[in-house]
Amino acid sequence: MGYWIVQTMNGISFGMVLFVIAAGLSLIFGLMRIVNLAHGCFYALGAYLAIAILQWTGSYFLSMVAGPCGVAILGMIMQRFFLHRFPKKPLSQILLTLGFVFILEDLALLIWGGEHREIPKPPLFAGVLEIGDMSFPTYRLIIIATGILLAIGLWLFQEKTIMGATVRASVDDPEMAGGLGINVPALFTLIFCLGSLLSAFGGAMGGLLTGIYPGAEWEVLLLAMAVLILGGLGSLKGAFLASLFVGLVDNFGRVLIPNLALFTVFAPVALVLAFKQTGFFGK
Amino acid sequence: MIQVDLLEKSGFKKAVPYFLIMGVSALLILTFSSPGSASESTPPIKIGVLYPLVGLHAYLGKAQVEGVKLFFEKKGYKIADRDIQLIIEDTEGNPDTGLMKARKLIEKDKVHILLGIVVSSVAYAVRDTVHSNRTPLLITMANAAGMTRDRRSPYIFRSYQADGTAMYYASQYVHEKMGSRKAIFSGPDYAYGHENAEAFRKGFQKSGGEVLKEIFVPLGTKDFGPYLTLISQFGGKADTLAFVYGGSDSIKFVKGLDEYRVKDKFRVLINLGATGPGTQLKEEGKAALGIYSIDMVYSNLNSPVTKEFLALVKEKYGYYDFNHHWGYLGAEVVGRALEQIRGNIEQKDKFLEALRNVRFESINGPFEFDHQGQNAIVNFYILRNEMVGGQVDQVLVDVLPKRRDPWWLDQQW
Question: Where are the domains of chain B?
Fold first, then answer.
């Protein structure tokens, strides 16, 4: 019994990391319909910066917080000075963000090298929870808790605050919102920053789980897109449920049907695209 | 009179000074363009060095090239008074590129010897070309088993292990010396993992042990969590966990062994290639403590030859990597064979025989070739990760002397 509980929690913890990244992508791609291929790079930078900040300051808190803030600033620069010139032009956005990917990838390679790096865990979270004769690492519990708190926080922000309403209004009808005195361009930059921050925070969290290495940015982008397609673009609830779904299906798929391990995530995506293109809760 | 006119018309007279200059320059160039050493009449011995210098395996190739150069530099790039010329080519870790470069070295550069190769698919790709061109090849890392088994050739040698050798002997060691009776094996889900699983199983069963389950992790797996939990489940039934992993996977796996407290659930943990000194132990840290490993190289070997080599590497390159061993060893094997035949590489059969009979105390311990497969017969070291001077390092537990490729002992597979 303990075995099944631990496996379920493995799936949920992986799902929560996916959610944080997918939430960021949901804001950028789902809500604003901007194609940002560098979203995976923001994840990677979040992880690398966590390692660097930890080395400089020794503070785990700073490494999880300051890094994502730095990446948010990078996102702001990218959106404000480059991406905003190409609204509703996905091909240009793809080319532009791909260019950023090459630059950021090489920069990371130059600074941190090509080898696998681990983010050390805070001693507080280095323990285990014993369930029967199985052990479950404490830091994964923290990741689950963080993911849930973030989901609640984002939902409250979107549904219950004036800011959230403003964002929704500006996305639905930017002209009208502008007419009401809302500074739509500034708002869009802010959303982009938030999306980038979330991706980088996902990187810091994911880095705890899997470490960071060249190529991680593409793996993550692919998984985040799969989650968005399943959950439906622009839906936070969809992203949350789809992340849990992907995390659990991937986890159990791997242990129950090892030969189909690579298949377990993308088969549901293919099915959804075939039968309900807008995903579970898409608009 | 007419001749003078003709000469003037054709401008020949004006050209004469230029012809003079060209002639004198040509003479000067010919005089000074000798190979520039005592042996101007004998052409150099050309050694084609083939390694991956870009891509996933570049870190292996780069250090091995450094090892090769270190040996020949020590010899002043001369063996038996004949110059050594290294021609280094990048295989990119890719069989098509590797084959192209091998052909270039053999056909265009006319190398006498080929040295190197890390990636098994590259080894298999060049096999036929090397054999049909009768070019001696010494493989310094690719563990493509066939190269010294069913696909062997009198021209192909290997100064490394054939895939599975280490795990075969490890399985017997843990059974005989550590009381292992039931084991779980884990590795990456491709040829490397499967071949080692098979070798472990054969060796373990031969000793009387039983492998309860083999758990393979697909390449590109992000989260090892589910697999670590799966392995933990067998903690009550099996006493031993054997595993092989490299690169990023090895770090994720070993850290996971600690995070999921898998080390508490098995009495013996032994691995190949996952807890090496350098990046692996550095990133794994305390998670690697208490885990055993088997290898053909032990950096802290108490031998003057090894110590001298380590000092040389650190002095020349400022850092040390176990891959320096493989390049240096391969170069030394070739160098000694060349010395034996006094540099007369043109006498190919004599060179091959000298190579076959090379036998010396190398930087990894005693070295010789198995005459059947032309694979190395070397010591295998059983190591354990412990805290040494505040850092996690490998400590020598036991030596398995002069082990050969078990396929030749037991040709059932």
Answer: 45-161+303-374, 165-295+380-408
> Under CATH, what is the fold of the domain B45-161+303-374?
Rossmann fold (3.40.50)
β-strand B365-369 against B376-388: which pairing, if any?
antiparallel
Longest C-alpha distance within chain B, in Å? 114
Nearest Cα neighbor of A230 from A196, A158, A278 is A278
Residue A280 in domain: no
Q: Which two tokens stand for residue B184?
A: 């779980």
Residue A10: which of B225, B252, B261 has the nearest Cβ? B225
Element (H, E) at A283: none
The whole domain housing A252 covers 2-275
Q: Contact B223/A258, CB-based, under 8 Å?
A: no
pTM for the predicted model, two decimal places? 0.83
B247 touching A (Cβ < 8 Å): yes
Question: What's the number of domains chain A is made of?
Answer: 1
Domain assignment present for residue A281? The answer is: no
- Residue A275 structure tokens: 């039968």
Looking at beta carbons, which residues of chain B come within 8 Å of A47? none
Residue at token pair 């192209």: B100
Q: What CATH code is carried by the domain that includes residue A40?
A: 1.10.3470
Q: What is the DSSP string of A98-147?
A: HHHHHHHHHHHHHHH-SS-B-PPPPGGG--EEEETTEEEEHHHHHHHHHH
- Contact yes or no for B225 and A13 at CB 8 A: yes
Q: Worst-scoring range by mean pLDDT, A81-85, B306-310, B375-379? A: A81-85
- Helix, strand or coil, per DSSP, at residue B87: strand
ipTM, interface predicted TM-score of the complex: 0.85
Q: What residues contact residue B261 under an 8 Å CB cut-off, 6+ apart? A: A128, A135, B232
Residue ranges with strand state E in B286-375: 292-295, 359-362, 365-369
What pairing do the DSSP bridges indicate for beta strands B82-90 and B78-79? antiparallel
Nearest to A258 among B216, B251, B284 (CB): B216
Q: Which of B226, B232, B259 sits opposite A254 (nearest CB)?
A: B226
* Residue A266 forms part of a structural domain: yes
Residue B207 class from Cβ within 10 Å (0-12 exposed, 13-18 middle, 19+ buried)?
middle
Residue pLDDT, tens place only, A212-232: 988 889 988 988 988 988 888
* DSSP string across A6-70: HHHHHHHHHHHHHHHHHHHHIIIIIIT----TTHHHHHHHHHHHHHHHHHHH--HHHHHHHHHHH
What pLDDT score was predicted for residue A283? 55
What is the CATH number that goes with domain B165-295+380-408? 3.40.50.2300
Judged by CB atoms within 8 Å, which residues 237-256 of A form the interface with B? 250-252, 254-255
Q: A209 — contact with chain B (CB < 8 Å)? A: yes
B86: which strand partners?
B47
Query: Does the residue A258 lie in any domain?
Result: yes
Q: Which of B159, B207, B164, B206 is nearest to B185 (CA)?
A: B164
3-class state of residue B14 by DSSP: helix
- C-alpha distances (whole Å) from B244 to each of A170, B167, B214, B345 are 54, 9, 12, 39
User: What percent of chain B has pLDDT above 90?
Assistant: 77
Tell me if residue B53 falls in helix, strand or coil. Answer: coil
Hey, which residues 102-131 in chain A have their CB within 8 Å of chain B?
Answer: 114-118, 120, 128
Same fold, B45-161+303-374 and B165-295+380-408: yes
**Which pLDDT belongs to residue A280?**
74
- Pick from A17, A2, A18: nearest CA to A135: A2
> Do the bridges between strand B376-388 and strand B391-403 make them parallel or antiparallel, or are there none, so unpaired?
antiparallel
The residue of B56, B60, B223 whose CB has the most chain A CBs within 10 angstroms, and thus the best one to mutate to test that interface, is B223
User: In terms of CA atoms, which chain A residue is nearest residue B278?
Assistant: A115
